[in-house]
Amino acid sequence: MSMCDDTLLCNYPKCRAKLCGFAWVTACSHAFCDQHGSGEFSRSPAICPACSSALSGKLDIVRTELSPSEEYKAMVLAGLRPETVLDISARALAFWTYQVCQCVAYDIHSM
User: Fold this and answer.
1) Which residue of 10, 26, 73, 76 is 20 to 30 Å from 90, comparing CA positions?
2) Each residue of 35-55: pLDDT tens digit?
3) Which segments within 1-111 are labelled E, that is strand?
């Protein structure tokens, strides 16, 4: 089993560090370690270092905790309609699928 199967890796070119603690996630579905995200996304305008997409929207870049507390998980979706929760879940699964595909492509190209 490769590291890509169960762990997010930094999408910053040449970094590929295992993400833990906090990560920066973009609207273009890329994830970055805290070090590279803090450096890259402090500039304006923000540009995704993985795909060069412009990130100008309020929620185009989010710093997120990768292991949220049980209290947070219990409340974050509370009150939302079931179809909204399912939509959020589908988007989260699509994000992970994309990350795994990117990891496989990176592994193939680095051979």
Assistant:
1) 10
2) 999 999 998 889 999 999 999
3) 22-26, 31-33, 46-47, 54-55, 61-65
Longest pairwise C-alpha distance within the chain: 48
Q: Using CA atoms, how far apart are residues 95 and 30, in angstroms rounded to an integer?
A: 8
Phi first, then psi, for residue 24 (nearest 5°) are: -100, 125
Handedness of CA 109, 66, 87, 2 (dihedral sign): positive
C-beta neighbour count of 36 within 10 angstroms? 19
Structural domain of residue 9, as residue ranges?
Answer: 3-109
Q: What per-residue confidence (pLDDT) applies to 43?
A: 86
Tokens 């949220």, residue located: 68
Q: At 109, is the pLDDT very low, low, confident or very high (cuts 50, 70, 90)? A: low
Q: How many structural domains compose the chain?
A: 1
Residue 5 has pLDDT above 80, yes or no: no
Do 38 and 24 touch, CB atoms closer than 8 A? yes
